[in-house]
Write a structure and sequence with these properties.
Layout (H helix, E strand, L loop, with lengths): L13 H13 L15 E9 L5 E8 L4 E7 L11 E6 L2 E10 L3 E9 L8 H21 L6 H5 L10
Antiparallel strand pairs: 1-2, 2-3, 3-6, 4-5, 5-6
């Protein structure tokens, strides 16, 4: 079992993300041509979950005027990839590459780019809808992964994965 399985659940990082990236939007990114003027900063669909490897944390989508990222914030800070380093996480049946990041007021987390820049979105409602759909599809994909039978059940006549009932 990983260290994070023993860590106390961390608080939902949505508020910290919105504060940190709202500040970035008003400072470092203000006026840059890659920013969509009709979009704001919003955290969508964050929920606490445990990944296949036993690592627990928060997963959701961060929408900004310049990008949309899937964000992973493990409960155990020791599990977060160092800024700029990549880590792969399995969500459902697919692997996703996340890059370690760190922002003042937020601390360390990992982000997987979904869209950048954001000009294909008409407005914040459209971006929010896509972010919500990403989370819905990830949760549906995870629910669709069949449970693997225990080895002993298989050896003693239990169902095999993919076998007809």
């Amino acid at each position: 079992m990983s260290r994070s399985a023993h860590a106390a659940p961390a608080a939902n990082p949505s508020g910290l993300l919105v504060q940190a990236y709202g500040r970035i939007a008003r400072t470092r990114m203000a006026g840059l041509p890659m920013c969509h003027p009709g979009l704001g900063v919003e955290a969508v669909g964050f929920h606490h979950r445990t990944l296949d490897g036993g690592e627990a944390g928060w997963l959701g989508v961060l929408v900004t005027p310049w990008c949309m990222n899937l964000v992973w914030r493990p409960d155990d800070p020791a599990c977060v990839a160092a800024p700029g380093r990549e880590r792969t996480h399995r969500l459902g049946e697919a692997d996703y590459g996340f890059i370690g990041a760190q922002e003042d007021g937020m601390g360390r987390f990992e982000a997987c780019s979904l869209f950048s820049p954001m000009f294909e979105f008409e407005d914040m409602a459209a971006a929010r809808a896509v972010a919500g759909e990403v989370m819905r599809l990830l949760q549906a994909r995870e629910a669709a992964v069949p449970e693997q039978p225990a080895r002993r059940r298989f050896l003693f006549g239990g169902a095999r994965p993919g076998a007809a009932a």
